[in-house]
Amino acid sequence: MSFDPQYSNLTGYIAGVDEVGRGPLAGAVVIAAVILDPDNPIAGLDDSKKLTAKKRSLLAEQIKEKALCYFIARAEHEEVDELNVFHATLLAMQRAVTGLDIVPDRVLVDGKFCPQIPYPCEAVIKGDVKVAAISAASIVAKVSRDNEMIALDKTYPGYGFAKHKGYPTKLHIEALQILGISPIHRKSYKPVQKIINQC
Q1: CA 186 – CA 109 distance, rounded (Å)
Q2: Is 141 contained in some domain?
Q3: Is residue 166, in this structure, part of any structural domain at all?
Q4: How far apart are CA 180 and CA 171, in angstroms?
Q5: Which of 8, 90, 174, 199 could form a disulfide with 115 if both were Cys (CB 3.0 to 4.6 A apart)?
Q6: Number of domains in the chain
Q7: Is 67's pLDDT higher than 80?
Q8: Which residues contact 151 (CB under 8 A, 6 or more apart)?
């Protein structure tokens, strides 16, 4: 796909940042920050939600191999409960950007808000379809979190984490009603609170 030339023509080290996992009832919010190599382009970058799981996985490996640097950060479910998901996400974004091996000249974040970081930062609405580095970050974050939830499905069987990745699907809600909450559920989310109050 072709990205917005307003951002494609920027010079210097441009870090793209995106998050995955604000909506789920369980697990962490995962953030990726990526600085792509303009001399080593990656074909097929797009909004991670528009790609198949197989394509995302292949692209994630290419991004990790070809990018100048990347960093994956997270806000645990306890932090989501303590801070609320908005502030926990901004904290994880801060961790992702400051974890990069290269100091960025500019940071472009998907959405409406920027974290508190010591670098020039711009929030880009629908950034994952406008900015290649944000697209790359969305793919790396999505693949990382999906793989984590698939692994957690084995630790906490019965909830269907491998299928719904913690999102509030009918299957997930039914499992909560039968099994109760797991140690990785977000207690501040209403569907989880409802189950807690029923006990």
Answers
A1: 25
A2: yes
A3: no
A4: 13
A5: 90
A6: 1
A7: yes
A8: none
pLDDT in tens, 27-45: 999 999 999 999 999 999 9
Give yes or no for a contact between 14 and 106, defined as CB atoms under 8 angstroms apart. Answer: yes
Going by pLDDT thresholds of 50, 70 and 90, the confidence category of residue 2 is confident
What are 107-145's pLDDT values in tens digits? 999 999 999 999 999 999 999 999 999 999 999 999 999
What confidence score (pLDDT) does residue 190 get?
96
For residues 10 and 30, give the distance between their C-alpha atoms in angstroms, rounded to a whole number: 26
Q: Which of 98, 123, 119, 97 minimizes the C-alpha distance to 110?
A: 123
Please state, as a whole number, how many other Cβ atoms lie within 10 Å of the Cβ of residue 13: 19
> What range does the domain containing 10 cover?
5-149
Residues with Cβ within 8 Å of 186's Cβ and at least 6 positions away in sequence, in order, are 24, 25, 26, 77, 80, 81, 85, 192
Q: Is residue 196 one of the residues assigned to a domain? A: no
Q: Which two tokens stand for residue 177?
A: 């009603």
Give me 136's structure tokens. Answer: 């790359």
**Cα–Cα distance for residue pair 83/12, rounded to 1 Å:** 34
Which parts of 14-166 are beta strand (E)? 14-20, 29-35, 69-75, 106-110, 121-124
Q: What is the DSSP letter of 2?
A: P
